[in-house]
Amino acid sequence: MYYVYMLRCKDNSIYTGITVDINRRMKEHFSKNEKCAKYTLTHSVKRLEAVWITNNKSLASKLEYAIKKLTKKQKENLAETKKLEEIFFSNEKIDIDNYKSESIKY
Q1: How confident is the model at residue 95 (pLDDT cuts 50, 70, 90)?
Q2: Residue 25's domain is classified under what CATH number?
């Protein structure tokens, strides 16, 4: 399984990433250890906003890329609703049926 996730940073920015181990990756981001992303090293993480699960790396990478291309307003809407269909309804590159929203508290 691959996880695509959105993090809220303390400066109100949103970071998007993928991982195969969501708990390990969250520990890395929140603790700012040597394996955290360069972005979250300089932008402290406040909370995990949203998580989607998919079966393979290719699908995870496509969703991560598509989210990163969204406007700030669209990212905010996605972080709030967690509903891919509200953002990607007309995007033929993202088949939302390949992703399952997951409720993970961190």
Answers
A1: confident
A2: 3.40.1440
